[in-house]
Every structure is written in C-alpha cells, then in structure tokens.
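Issue 218. Parser rejects a valid record. Input:
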Amino acid sequence: MKRISTYPDREIPLPTEAELEVLGVIWEQGRGTVGSVHFVLNEQRARGYTTVLKLMQIMLAKGLLSRLDKERTHFYLPIVTEAETRAAYVLEISARLFSGSLFALASFALGMTPADEDVDEIRAAIDAHDRPAGRQ
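Output the parser choked on:
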C-alpha cells in the first residue's frame, strides 16, 4: 500500500504496523540491536530473528532508522521521533478522511463518547493552548 503522506520536510514514508512495533522498541531503548529488538518483540508475538533483521534493514533503506557500526555490533537509532510519527499519522488521517480539517477530526473523535478523564485532559490541553505564553 502506497503511503501518501510523509514527514514534514522529509521524504520518508510513514512506517507500517510492523515498523511501528520496531520503532516503539527503539524509541523506548534509545537505540537497539537486532537481537535486543527481536527479544522484546518476541515477548508480544513470536517472530524469527531474520524477519526482524530484514525489517530493520528495510527501515534503514527507507530512512526510518540509522545504523551505528561499533566494532562488530550494529546499533540502530531512530531517525524519526515518536511525536513526529504521531503528527504525520494524524495529518494523513485528517487528509484522507476529513479533507485535511483537524477540527473535523477532533469533532469526530469527541463524538465517540470519550471517557470523563479524556474530556478533562482535552479541556486542560485547550486551556493551556489558549493561555498566552508565560501565564499559568
């Protein structure tokens, strides 16, 4: 499936579900080897070592990861942050389903009967956004 959105100012495709799982491990660890990522992912679902290796090589080629070769160990580091990835996906969903309107996306999400604590957090975020810089 061809992804239509990329990260702002970069020619990097959005990660697939499997790539998001790998990125999640690496974001949490800061960096990772194929072995360390494989170990964590296998706690969730069994995967072959070579499957994880190939996936990480593909992510390297796509520009989602970089690799640091230290002696005989290959450390993989994320090129994209978790926040950038979330923003890129929100923009893609907004573009595909809501004609690019974040308001329409937010209105739809609020219409899904959010939990009370979610509503409180949304209100707090809006209040913080509306407050002039420097005021608490």
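Fixed in the parser; the record now loads. Helices lie at 17-29, 34-44, 49-62, 82-97, 102-110, 116-130.
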